[in-house]
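In this section we turn from sequence analysis to structure. A common task in structural bioinformatics is to predict how a protein folds when a small molecule is present, because the ligand can shape the pocket around it. The inputs are simple: the amino acid sequence and a SMILES string for the ligand, here zinc ion. Study the lines below before reading on.
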Amino acid sequence: MYCFQCGREYVAEVSECVECGVELVDEKPTPPEEVGGENEPQVAYELFEWSFEARRMVDQLLTGEGIAHGWQGAVLIVREADEDRADALIEQAETAEGPRLDPDIDKVAYGMEEWSAEAQSALVDALGLAGVAHEFDADGDLVVAEEDEERVDEIVEQVARRIAIEDELGEAGTELEGLALSDLIGEVHGLARKLDRNPGDAKSTLAMVKQAGTLADVRTPFGFDSERWAAIRQSSSAMVGILSTEDRDEDDVRGAASALHEQLAGVI
Ligand SMILES: [Zn+2]
């Protein structure tokens, strides 16, 4: 048995991945880089807000249709040639009927006045994927079971935060991808390490101001988690700010460099 998300292999008696908490599948997962032939274009679907069950459902639907696919964490990779078929299966998983709200239990309502239609539909998708029963009342308020309140609070906050980030960063910034993006990330990562060791290094300082400045302006690349990317942009811009201060403190440089180094290590 395998975990489709992290690829770990288990003996047949195990039903869940200890690492991911996701139910195992029978088929050995394909590493994302091996989906399709060499140089064959791929598409990525960010399924961060989906529950494990929903991701597993998509995985199994794709397997059932014989569509090559792989996972990079919560990001699903398929061949571009399979995009339409994958879209249809993802939609099928998305609209799979969620649980009904029991009429006899205590409920809480959430005002939706400040939510755009688009934001509401993102929220509904997120609730459905998390398996939370919900409906809208005559006033347009979102109604859920009181026992789900904490969970719903979390989901509401997540969706609101994601939308705020998309609004803020979505249109701004330069688009960069592929080799140019990985080169830039690699360079800033290397410079961060140098500055962490030797915060007074003039050559690295100059290079970092330029490269981190560029990175701070890159909009969320395809297949990256938008919150994580926003944090990288913030750290890059903080780095530039610190390095541009004339009488900067070496500890500040070191702190900013090690934070950036660590964040970038997570996406290399
Ligand atoms: Zn796993």
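The mean pLDDT is 88. As an exercise, try to locate the residues that line the zinc ion site and compare them with your own expectations.
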